[in-house]
Amino acid sequence: MNHSQFLISGFLRPPFYNGVGRQINQLQRLTIKFCKSHGGSKGMRDFIENDLVNFAKENQSVVVYVKPRRHRSPVIVAEYLNGDRRWMSAQNRNQEEILKWLSLLSLQAGDTEPIRYRKNWHTDCPSIQGPWTSFTHKNPAFNNVVYPDKDLGKPLNMPETATEKLLRLVQEQKKE
């Protein structure tokens, strides 16, 4: 049975015009839930005491909520601009691991679920030649050229300048 039949299909799309004009951080909100007395929350408490302020200063576009709750394991909930939510358990993780996970969550776009990409076009007879590149019809002798090369660096179809004509005439007169 084909595994791709069970994947959600969709088109490739950039997240909210990212890269058009400027980089937009896709992480919108972080909720850090922890227990003040639970042993598994020690790393989370250390992170909150030592690194949370620096993380918030580095990621000013992210709203960070800290929510203490009794007798529960620590949890990180990340909410993105496209509406996706990522839930991650931070049970028995140390301060450095939590900082690494938060930096990873801040760099992601939210849609990390596997997706079967669909194409915008369809053909009944696909090409067997492969994709065209700018090197498809080039002379193979160019593979061994050491660059910069004077002959290949000359512009194509350029008329001879007056200076070049004079130099050529002087060379011809010297030969005579």
Essential attributes:
176 residues; alpha/beta; two-stranded parallel ribbon; 6 strands; 27% helix
Strand order in the largest sheet: 3-2-4-5
Biggest beta-sheet profile: 4 strands, mixed
Name the overall outline. elongated
Report the end-to-end length measured between terminal Cα atoms. Answer: 84 Å
Provide the structure class.
alpha/beta
Task: Give the SSE string.
Answer: EEHHEEEHEHH
- Total E-strand runs: 6
Folded structure, characterized:
There is one protein chain. The chain is α/β, with parallel strands linked by helices and 176 residues long. It is built from 5 helices and 6 strands; from the N terminus they run E-E-H-H-E-E-E-H-E-H-H. It has helices at residues 42-50, 52-58, 95-107, 150-153, 162-175, and strands at residues 8-11, 27-34, 63-68, 75-80, 85-89, 115-118. The strands form 2 sheets. It has a 4-stranded mixed β-sheet, with helices on one face. A hairpin with a 4-residue loop joins strand 4 and strand 5. The longest helix has 14 residues, at 162-175. The chain starts with 7 loop residues before the first strand and ends with a helix.
